[in-house]
């Protein structure tokens, strides 16, 4: 009798532990398309459409985000129990634009989407942004009933999907969907070759090389009407499938797209965790935003380094470690706060960063001299900021492409993120 009782207790405990994905979600996605508007000092969110997508590429057990990365966070609460059942941090092009001079002069609207596993029961959906002290605060919320007949099936785009590198189940893999921009129908073979190069390039670099069996890469063969991508300063505006453009925020090499909802319509054709856009141009440029999307030129000779650099932003939330190149940002980081990115520090809370990777004899901050070349340390200058911001290494793929390696802090951050997706 006692044995049966113990078995019963164990069974209940096991069921409680397992209470998770299948209790709350289908293995499909609910996409919330919204507009993110405002200026340098204000923001507001407005709903556009709810969509039902056929795939869920994310984890089935890492439902609540433990990373605390990103400028924003989406939260999903089970309405009946009031319990947090899903959350994910991310950043946005809007948040970057807020730090430009233009944002002091005009109000703008950007398209964004939140992708969550499709709920079985009514939920409270919430978007949070960090306030001036870095704490996530509620900016938008709505109740969503999964049986609402206004939730539209996704499927406005119909393109073939090609498997580039398949390792396993999307639930335990990092799934990247590669999307072409500026490739006409006659250039799809070239895109497929570039999508294969993307995989080859990514796995040339550690720590990706040692974990290639944890990645799935699929390519959507979405055709553009014209070849190339927009270069506004040259009056070049081709008709392309996701409307990528150089001169984002008037910075020549910053190539991004604001057609975010169209981009998500194309990405919806495959299970994905990360979106990577390859543009049909030899012109140097690209960009990457954490859990948003990445983009780079497919035909530039620096492509391998650009790919891992931008993917570092999009996948692992890594900051730029450079501080000596021109950008359009004004005071991108608040120097009295510890930034959330794992590879830069203001020393406000260095213990939360790579302090444990330092040898005891390493001075903090560390002199930026040849003596400390290749050593994990604390060099002043990083995150577009020459003073008051520090980086882990004299060089890193998040700084220049000279050494072709990630510093120890970036390497660890990427490995932790791979674990988060695959464990
Ligand atoms: Zn680094």
Describe the structure.
18% of the residues lie in helices and 28% in strands. The protein has seven helices and 16 strands. Helix 4 (188-202) packs across helix 6 (303-316). Zinc ion (ZN) is lined by residues 321, 343, 392-393, 396, 398, 406-407, 409-410.
Helicity level: 10-25%
Q: Helix and strand succession?
A: HHEEEEHEEEEEEHEHEEEHEEH
Number of H/I helices: 7
CATH class of the largest domain: Alpha Beta
**Strands side by side in the biggest sheet:** 9-11-10-12-14-13
- Total separate domains: 3
The CATH topology of the largest domain comes to: Collagenase (Catalytic Domain)
As a whole number of angstroms, the C-alpha radius of gyration is 22 Å
CATH homology group of the largest domain: Collagenase (Catalytic Domain)
Shape: globular
Strand percentage: 25-35%
Give the second-level CATH assignment, the architecture of the largest domain. 3-Layer(aba) Sandwich
Terminal CA distance: 37 Å
Summarize the structure.
By secondary structure, this protein is an alpha/beta fold. Helix content is about 20%, strand content about 30%. The chain contains seven helices and 16 strands.
Which terms would index this structure?
single chain; 423 residues; alpha/beta; Immunoglobulin-like; Collagenase (Catalytic Domain); 6-stranded mixed beta sheet; 16 strands; 18% helix; binds zinc ion
């Amino acid at each position: 009798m006692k044995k049966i009782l113990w078995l019963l207790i164990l069974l209940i405990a096991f069921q409680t532990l397992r209470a998770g994905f299948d209790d709350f979600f289908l293995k499909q996605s609910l996409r919330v398309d919204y507009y993110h508007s405002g200026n340098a000092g204000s923001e507001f969110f407005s709903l556009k459409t709810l969509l039902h997508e056929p795939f869920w590429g994310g984890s089935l057990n890492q439902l609540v985000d433990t990373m605390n990365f990103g400028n924003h966070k989406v939260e999903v609460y089970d309405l009946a129990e009031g319990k947090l059942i899903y959350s994910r941090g991310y950043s946005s092009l809007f948040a970057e634009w807020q730090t430009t001079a233009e944002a002091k002069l005009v109000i703008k609207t950007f398209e964004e989407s939140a992708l969550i596993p499709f709920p079985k029961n009514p939920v409270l959906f919430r978007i949070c942004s960090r306030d001036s002290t870095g704490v996530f605060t509620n900016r938008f919320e709505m109740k969503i009933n999964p049986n609402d007949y206004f939730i539209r099936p996704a499927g406005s785009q119909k393109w073939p999907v090609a498997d580039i590198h398949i390792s396993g189940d999307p639930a335990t893999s990092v799934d990247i969907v590669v999307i072409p921009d500026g490739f006409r129908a006659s250039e799809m073979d070239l895109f497929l070759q570039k999508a294969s190069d993307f995989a080859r390039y990514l796995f040339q670099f550690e720590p990706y090389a040692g974990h290639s069996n944890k990645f799935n890469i699929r390519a959507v063969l979405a055709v553009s009407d014209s070849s190339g991508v927009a270069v506004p300063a040259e009056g070049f505006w081709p008709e392309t499938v996701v409307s990528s453009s150089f001169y984002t925020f008037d910075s020549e090499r910053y190539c991004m797209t604001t057609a975010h909802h169209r981009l998500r319509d194309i990405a919806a054709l495959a299970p994905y965790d990360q979106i990577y856009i390859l543009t049909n141009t030899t012109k140097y440029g690209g960009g990457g935003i954490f859990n948003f999307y990445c983009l780079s030129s497919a035909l530039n000779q620096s492509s391998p380094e650009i790919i891992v650099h931008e993917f570092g932003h999009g996948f692992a939330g890594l900051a730029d470690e450079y501080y000596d190149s021109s950008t359009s940002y004004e005071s991108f980081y608040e120097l009295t706060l510890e930034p959330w990115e794992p590879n830069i520090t203001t020393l406000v809370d260095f213990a939360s960063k790579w302090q444990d990777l330092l040898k005891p004899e390493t001075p903090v901050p560390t002199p930026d001299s040849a003596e400390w070349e290749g050593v994990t340390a604390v060099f002043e200058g990083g995150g577009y900021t020459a003073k008051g911001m520090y980086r882990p290494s004299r060089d890193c793929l998040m700084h220049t492409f000279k050494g072709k390696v990630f510093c120890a802090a970036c390497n660890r951050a990427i490995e932790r993120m791979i674990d988060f997706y695959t464990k």
